[in-house]
Amino acid sequence: MRRVDARFVPLLGTVAVFLLTAGYGSFAYTSFFSPQVFLNLLIDNAFLCIVGVGMTFVILSGGIDLSVGSVIALTTMVSAALVEQHHWSVAQAIPVVLVMGTAFGAFMGWLIQRFRLQPFIVTLAGMFLARGLCYLISIDSISITDAAYTTIAQARLSLWADGPSITVGALLALGMVALGIWLAHATEFGRTVYAIGGSEASALLMGLPVARTTVLVYTFSGFCSALAGVVFTFYMLSGYGLHAVGLELDAIAAVVIGGTLLSGGVGYVAGTLFGVLILGIIQTLIAFDGSLSSWWTRIVIGGLLFVFCLLQRGFESRR
Amino acid sequence: MGSTVVLEARGLTRRFTGVLALSGVDFSLRAGEIHALMGQNGAGKSTLIKVLTGVYPPDAGTLALNGEPIQPASPAAAQRLGISTVYQEVNLCPNLSVAENIFAGRYPRKGAAGLWRIDGSRMQQGARALLARLNLDIDVTRLLASYPVAVQQMVAIARALGVDAKVLILDEPTSSLDEQEVERLFAVLRRLRGEGMAILFVTHFFEQMYAISDRITVLRNGELVGEYLKTDLPPAALITAMVGRELSAASGRNAQAAAATGPALLEARGFGRRGMLNPVDLSLRRGEVVGVGGLLGSGRTELARLLFGLDRSDSGELQIDGQRARFEHPAQAIRHGLGMCPEERKLEGIVAELSVRENIALALQARLGIWNYLSSARQKEIADRFVKALGIKTPDIDTPVALLSGGNQQKVVLARWLATEPRLLILDEPTRGIDVAAKQEIMNEILALARGGLAVLFISSEMDEVVRVSDRIVVMRDRSKVGELPGNSSEQAVYHLIAAEA
Amino acid sequence: MQRLLRHHLLWPVVTLVLLLAVNAAFNPGFWQLQWRDGHLYGSVVDILNRAAPLALVALGMTLVIATRGIDISVGATVAIAAAVAALMIGGELVVKDGVQTHVSRFPMSVAIVAALAVAALCGLWNGLLVAKVGMQPIIATLILMVAGRGAAQLLTGGQIITVYYAPFFFLGNGFLLGLPFAVFIAAAVWGALHLLVTRTALGLFIQSIGINPAAARLAGLHERLITVCVYTFCGLAAGVAGLVISSNVKSADGNNAGMLMELDAILAVTLGGTLLTGGRFSLAGSVLGALIIQTLTSTIYSIGVPPEINMVVKAAVVFVVMLMQSAEFRAAVRGWVVRPAAGGVR
User: What is the rounded (10 degree) CA torsion for B469, B471, B476, B480?
Assistant: First the structure.
């Protein structure tokens, strides 16, 4: 009397959408189906992918993190200030900002867990705080002219001779996805995250380390935001308080389109990768088309979100 | 059957605000036995379980496991001590795999670098071995949610075995199982008993209890009635122990015996909803009090919810005053003159932060609509009238209703419906968790209302009340109506109808 | 005195008074009011004027939060309403009788009604998703937040559309009886809403739904219909705010109009004492909250601190309010402040 193992259904939906959009693109535009175009999806959205990995864990645990875009901005600003104004080297600046982002996440996680505050409002305040700190450092953007940064930013690794190339950021993104997948399935931390999202009461009863895991989830998200901020710094070569405005929404959209239920407990990190790629394809398709203004991107993403949320609702009510 | 006492409780007492849930209860559980815990609603069964499993500490009394005194401070602590519980709702995580659920909290690790890394293959092997002890062979990598409840319960039991439980408590495990699944569960329990496990089994199904248990402990009103060998306690004696007195052979409503004549106010034919209530025939006349008797899970509340439009029926028809009616929202039922005091006072009855005045006026206001607003003065007038009529004890009518005692909150809910001047009132457990004096007042009020022409559908687990007050008694079992008895039947007769096939 | 201390508006009023005092301390001319050109000028008037759009949005948000929901799409709705109005009015330069005047593309009243209708539709969409489809409010309104911003940008073509039609400017720049007209709009909406929730059963119904939706349903309330209406009104209020804002700056900016306004609105509502968990609400509290936020901005400016610190201060305020509303925090503080009796029962 077994029922169908429903766990893969949302992910299959995502992959289907990905194949459909990619297929449409390849069909409609001759130059679309090239390895470089696909790699560019990853290169241009590497930071979104990294943030998405962290966000996936947060949403799997039943929470939400609205501060990710602001932490990215703060990371770029602190990096730029350290490197340009205080003449630190790359190797010195990067660890500092990583620790900063991680600590920021840990602080929010502690507030959420210790005082049972709603994640939405805590991370909302975090978002205000991070961006505000950005502006405290500098109102205008700080360009990064440091040689090491520009070198790394321009570095390209060719996949094969005369073949398509990939950036440091994209490699980091792929690495984080792999790390995320491993964490989610092979460690107690990952399984506890799923357990909390599935039934926090049961997880407590079963003796899983719920409190510690809740704090760690936001800590990890903070780390991902900081790492994404580092990649973003290479991408933009500047620190600015207006960087990554609204990125948290893109991250949430990528996670939801990637098949993760917003109520928690169901979803895959791999799905988020596909979610990010789908968002990238939509943007690329609209750019290729030329006749549609880029504002349509937002509308299409909103539409996709709507469809996926509706499907999730149907999925939930049938369970 | 074993003789070493594994779990011993002496003099357990637990009080909640105003209510003595457990009073000096002694309890002992032996190795290699299946022990049933029996008692009515409010007898203290669930409180006893909660104390044994560390959800609440007892106010007085001692607990000992294998002779060592214990004080479990939380369910997780009780588990570590060796007391495992399987609940009706199977408190595991549906979105983890079977193996992950069994080993949650103690995952086998592998590798030096990964003190973090879960050893998947060892975990699965271990899970399969534990399930094999229960004679169950399933794919342990699939999600728990992909298996039916019966299998999920087995997984919960396997988890208990995995943590070397010495005591296994099963709280209403068979409510969602069909006959075959129940048999499989019992086979497993007998096996475990043979291995020396001490098992505590709570159920309201008499025949199942008799099929599986060795010993029976009966609680009544928070006190221990006695511990018996199953063979020493036949059903009639069990009922007497649970209910507390010789069931009078004849009792019932004497006054107004020829109560209702006249056309039916409400007539339900083949009325039901798949998965919730099997088709039921029911009729009520003005001035009639129809009691609904049955044990937990017999479908009484489901009947009430369907009649009132909280849930939608999918079979049969409903007629009010001879006209076909279909209720998809309570507002429609209310417009036809129905009212309902729900079973869960806190969850569905009172609107906690609102005042007594606002709570009483709510349903009337809902019927009047948004524009026809009852001014504060009007609300006060109505509220004062009912506070007086029902004897609601409150500092004043602007007190938030959450601060009132259970009995007074129930009166507020009753007042809310009386304010709408209904023609038919459904009362679902109106006297649950209320002190004796308030109970009496509410019951008298109900009788007075019926005399005045109100039709009442009265659902209660207190059979003596049902029998005393009703003109007719509808008897339910397992989500079906099994029959009707006239008003002056005895409690014995009702229970016999319920336990008919036993 | 006791009753005064326990009044639910106490903390918002105290906070506002404190802020005004600080402001006045650093800015000696703060309380000065001048009557020039037939209207009142002064810092206080400025604060009231600038707080008006936020107050409007906060009023709509209050009812939504009272039903245990949230609407993070109001910023996008503001932008859409502003864009619709600006597009429909436009303002072409025309020569009439030798005089250059601006005429609007559509009659101004039509444009205003259209903008409000679109805004109400946005709210209706949210309400249907929450009440009929059953989506969590934050997710349902997230969709419009993302797509709506794109729609606003689409309407304006990513440009800032300037409005050249003088009569339209009255909404955001005009004066009535010496005070800014925007203040009157906000006051009118507040007044109408106040009457609605106190003179009809709406206030009672909304609170009941927020406190216990199951009990509300059982008592016969059409909780889904009321929820849809509440979200629709929230959209409508955002639309009015959008009109005031675009009139004030004489343009509609699809990219930036209303940006982050939802956060300010939620903050205003929470400052006013309405809990995010729903139930009892206070319209006056939300208006006070909007005033507090605006005064905060003004205070920061007058102290001479860079305005960007605004965000940090807002964050701190949110943290403080959140912690105060958390039962666990209050218990923890009591634990720190009150030492348990030695050997006491635990």
Answer: -150
The DSSP 8-state label assigned to residue A117 in this structure reads: -
Q: How many CB pairs under 8 A join A and C?
A: 130
Contacts of B482 by beta carbon, 8 Å cutoff, 6+ apart: B475, B476, B497, B498, B500
H or E element that contains A236? helix A210-236
Q: Which residues of chain C form beta strands (DSSP E)?
A: 34-36, 39-41, 92-96, 99-103, 160-162, 175-176, 179-180, 251-253
Residues B492 and B293: their CA atoms lie apart, in Å, by 12
Mutate to test the interface with C, among B350, B353, B375, B412 (most CBs of C within 10 A): B353
CA distance B90 to chain A (A): 9
Rounded to 5, what percent of chain B is helix, strand, coil?
35, 25, 40
Residue in chain B nearest C345 by alpha carbon: B59
Supply the pLDDT for residue A26: 80
Could B91 and A201 be called an inter-chain contact, meaning their C-beta atoms sit closer than 8 Å? yes
Confidence of residue B257 (pLDDT cuts 50, 70, 90): very low
pLDDT of amino acid A182: 93
Is residue B460 a contact partner of residue B429, using CB atoms and an 8 Å limit? yes
CB B341 within 8 A of CB B417: yes
Compute the 3-state secondary structure of chain A and give helix, strand, coil in percent, each to the nearest 5.
Answer: 75, 5, 20
Q: Which of C71, C80, C146, C267 to mutate to test the interface with A (most CBs of A within 10 A)?
A: C146
Report the distance separating Cα A259 and Cα B40, nearest Å.
47
pLDDT the model gives residue B203: 83
Contact map slice: C 65-84 vs A, CB within 8 A: 70
CB contact under 8 A, A187 and B146: no
Using an 8 Å Cβ cutoff, are C322 and A121 in contact? yes
**Residue A7, Ramachandran bin (φ over 0: left; ψ between -120 and 50: alpha; else beta):** alpha
Chain A positions in Cβ-Cβ contact with residue B116 (cut-off 8 Å): 186-189
Torsion angles phi and psi, residue B206, rounded to 5: -55, -50
For chain B, percent of residues with pLDDT exceeding 70: 93
Q: What is the pLDDT of residues A67-76, one digit of tens each?
A: 999 999 999 9
Identity of the residue numbered C249: V
Q: Determine the distance from the C-alpha atom of residue C176 to the mean position of all C-alpha atoms in its chain, rounded to a whole number.
A: 22
Rounded to whole angstroms, how far apart are CA atoms C67 and C217?
13
DSSP B88: T
Distance from CA of A243 to the nearest CA of C (A): 14
Tokens representing residue C308 in the block: 């960007």
Q: Is B353 helix (H, G, I), strand (E, B) or coil?
A: coil
**C35-49 burial by CB neighbour count: b if 16+ within 10 A, else e?**
eeeeebeebbbebbb
Helices (H), B73-115: 75-81, 98-102
C201–B373 C-beta distance less than 8 A: yes
Which residues in chain C have Cβ-Cβ distances shorter than 8 Å to A139? 306, 308
Q: Please give the ipTM for the structure prediction.
A: 0.85
| pLDDT tens per residue across span B202-220 | 887 777 888 999 999 999 8
Contacts of B258 (CB under 8 A, 6+ apart): none
Alpha carbons within 13 angstroms on the beta-carbon side of residue C342 total 0
Secondary structure (DSSP) of B165-194:
-SEEEEESTTTT--HHHHHHHHHHHHHHHH
Partners of A241 on chain C (C-beta within 8 Å) are 308
User: Which residues of B have a CB under 8 Å from any CB of C?
Assistant: 308, 310, 329-331, 334, 340, 342, 347-354, 358, 361-363, 365-374, 416
Rounded mean pLDDT, A149-170: 81
Alpha-carbon gap, residue B471 to B255, rounded angstroms: 10
Contact C201 B372 (CB under 8 A): yes
